[in-house]
Amino acid sequence: MKNTIIIISLFFAFTFNVKGQTNSYKLKFDSLSCLLIEGKIMNAYEGTDGVCMIELISANEVLESIMLKEGKDKFKFALNKNMFYSIRVSKTGFATKLISVNTEMLTGPEGVHVFKFETSLIKDKIAAKLNQDILDFPVTIIHFDYEKDCFVHNAVYTSYIKKELYKVGPVKIQTPKHAYVTDISDLASNSK
Question: What class does CATH assign to 2-187?
């Protein structure tokens, strides 16, 4: 009985009302929820229309969308365990940005993890000078790190994407050998 009361209390405690998003958007938490992802688009209000679209995608289907306007720059999504998601950030006059989120976990989540990030969009004029093949790739991969017991972004992958993005001319796309290494010291020890 005590566990039931705690579970019901936690359910109501995790029903957030996200202010500043259109239509009084409410996050949807349930027993499968394992990650609350909070993002801030630093230049969401810039441009001709001041509108930025955030879409949560899984299995090539848009699950939820949020339109940031009138100076709003933050969004939140509640994600379920053992799913692959993309967050697509788009805005007129700017290159679309993808963020990949993998919520696979071998064990049940103990509560809901929180991952926060900030990012900026690249203006189309600048993006036109960058490696167009790389612009289609996610800028980062967010996944669960068992050693740290939390969700992290894959710093090695993100660094690789940034490096390739600024290469000019034909680029041979290769997946980094250690695409899911979260500690850069592992790369140094393996390259000797």
Answer: mainly beta
Q: What are the start-end ranges of the E strands in 24-164?
A: 33-41, 52-58, 61-68, 74-80, 84-90, 97-102, 113-119, 141-145, 150-153
CA 129 – CA 167 distance, rounded (Å): 10
Q: Write the pLDDT tens digit of every residue in 32-57.
A: 899 999 999 999 999 888 899 999 99
Burial of 140 (0-12, 13-18, 19+ CB in 10 A): buried
Residue-wise pLDDT tens digits, 113-148: 999 999 999 999 999 999 999 999 999 999 999 999
Question: How would DSSP label each residue in 81-115?
Answer: TT-EEEEEEE-TTB--EEEEEE---SS--SS-EEE
Question: What are the residue boundaries of the structural domains of the chain, listed by start?
Answer: 2-187
Q: Which two tokens stand for residue 123?
A: 């203006």
Q: How far is CA 186 from CA 138, 146, 153, in A?
A: 23, 16, 16
Q: Is 63 exposed, middle or buried (0-12, 13-18, 19+ CB in 10 A)?
A: middle
CB 160 within 8 A of CB 171: no
